Amino acid sequence: MTATHRPRRRLHAALTAALAFAISACSGDKYPNTIFERHTEFNREVLSIFNTMFFWSALVFVLVEVALLWVLWRYRRREGQPEPKHVHGHTTLEIVWTLIPAVILIFLAVPTVRAIFRTQAKAVPNALQVQVIGHQWWWEFRYPQYGVITANELYLPIGRTVNFELKTADVIHSFWIPRLGGKRDLVSNHTNYLWFTPDSADETAWNGSCNEYCGASHANMRFRAFTVTPAQFEEWTAHQKTPAAFGAVAPATPGQPATQPATTQSATTQTATTQTATTQSTTPVTAASFTGWPADRMPAYTEPTKPIPAGISFNAQPGDPARGQQIYSRSACIGCHMISGNPMSMGQIGPNLTHVGSRLTIGAGLYPNDDQHLALWIKNTRAMKPGSIMPTLGKGEYDPILATTVTSGLTDQEIADIVAYLRALK
Ligand code: HEC
Ligand SMILES: [Cu+2]
Question: What is the DSSP secondary-structure string of 179-202?
Answer without folding.
Answer: TTEEEEEE-TT--EEEEE---S--
